[in-house]
Structures are given as C-alpha cells and as structure tokens.
Amino acid sequence: MFVGDSLQRGQWQSFVCLVQAAISAGQKSMKRGKAHSIFKAKEYNATIEFYWAPFLVESNTDVPIITDSDKRIVKVDTVAKHAEQWLGADILVFNTYVWWMTGRRIKSLWGSFANREDGYQELEATVSYSLALKTWANWVDSNVNPNITKVFFTTMSPTHQRSADWENSGGIKCFNETKPITRKRYWGSGSDKRMMAVVAGIVGKMKVPVTLINITQLSEYRIDAHTSIYTELGGKLLSEKEKSDPVHYADCIHWCLPGVPDTWNRILNAHLLQQWHSPLP
C-alpha cells in the first residue's frame, strides 16, 4: 500500500503500470475511490493499493480537499482514522512533503476539530511536520510487526517552480525544458533540507525498521520531466487557452508517466528484493 499525497499516487500508478503488463487481462481489476484505490492481481491474490492521506496525520482537507491552504487545519496528534486502512498490509510506502510547503505557517490542532478555534496553533512548517511525523512514527512502532510488514518512506519529491534556480532567468518554471540539469549535486529551492533532516531524525530513532527511498537528489536534475502544461485541472486536461498561460497553469510539481516515478519504483523493487533474500529481524 502506498500512502500519501498526489505525488505518492503517481508512484502507485507507476508501480501498477510496471506490474500489470505481466498479468493476464482477465486476472486483474481496478477500483478507484476518492481516498482509497485498489488494483487487484487475482491470480496472485495480491493488491497494490493507494490511500490518500496528504499529511499522513488527519486534517480537515483530507476529503474533500480545501483548495485555500489558509483554511486547512492539520490534526498533528492522530492518524487513527487513516491508519485503520493501513493495518494488514505486507508493504507500506509512506510519503508526505509538498502539502506542508505552502509558505505559510501550519494551523496545527490537538484534540477535536469541534474545538478548532481554541485548539490550534500556527506553527512553522518544520515544527508542525516534526510533530506529525512523530505521531505517525509512534503508530508504526506500536502497530506494525516488522516480521510481517516492511515499511518504507519516500523522501521529498522536488518541485521546479523557479527557473532562476538552474540559471534560466528568462524561463517560466519548468515550461519548455527539454533536458535534465547536468550540474553535479544541483539542489533547487523546491527541496527543503530541513524537512529532509526531520524525516531522517525521526526514522532513525524508530523501533520498527523503516527504509528511506531516497529519490530527492536524482529527481532534482529532471526539470524536463514534469507534466507542465500537459496536465489536468479539476479532472480535465488543460484547454488550449490555459496551455498558452504557463505562468499560471504549468504543473512543475507532478511527473509524467512513464517517467521519473518509474525510477523511484526500481529503487523500491531493489530494496524489496534485497530484503526478501535477507533474514528477517
């Protein structure tokens, strides 16, 4: 099961595409839902699932989504509602990053949403992110049996919103970029090393082993691989008028498929093969 935001959904879609070609037509099915989507390989009695939880912890923008980030409230002290769906999975692949990077302080709540006016504080993103990941880590440590379930965490997926980062001062975000960056160890403004350090620090102290799928640096170079104007808005492909306005409509967050997420899954698969042939803890 893949758990996280729309970038994690992209990794799930990639994984399904890589697997489904090897499964006969009558032996596979797909069921899509707003929060939970399931691809089933019947002959193997196996599923590849995606569960929508953009902050991992609960929030008031899980379903339906609140587009105004200033109105979002993150319940940093519980994953209970989401985690009911995670129980029983053989493999869990988590991710959360881009929804925290609004440039605003995060409205962080303890307790019930009914007490929202009294219960939340506006915190720096790194602080709120740390609180939320500690809640997630506590759930994993308390509920996951590492002899049964393997746990992974995909590091942050870079965004490419500022063409000045790669010295294309006349560019418009990632629009019309056709080649990867070749500068060694390039790191843009769309990846926050403080957030990455939070993940590493918390995962490193957990009782249950969590394998980091470190996709950040290799994805940083791929300014050419985003959906750009060939994306959708509200479930529909952009109109020609919208495509002609890349300043407002070019998507330099999500990735084309086939594309970069396939590489992430090659790394995940390598970890799975290595762990499969290694003795259990």
Account of the protein in words:
With 281 residues, this protein is of the alpha/beta class. Helix content is 30%, strand content 20%. The strands form four sheets. The chain has a seven-stranded mixed sheet, covered by helices on one side. Helix 1 (6-20) crosses helix 9 (260-276). The longest helix is centred in the middle third of the chain and has 19 residues, at 125-143.
Pattern of helices and strands: EHEEEEEHEEHEHEHEHEEEHHEH
- Contiguous low-pLDDT stretches (5 residues minimum) are none
How far from one another are the termini? 21 Å
Largest sheet: 7 strands, mixed
Features:
alpha/beta; seven-stranded mixed β-sheet; 9 helices; 30% helix; 20% strand
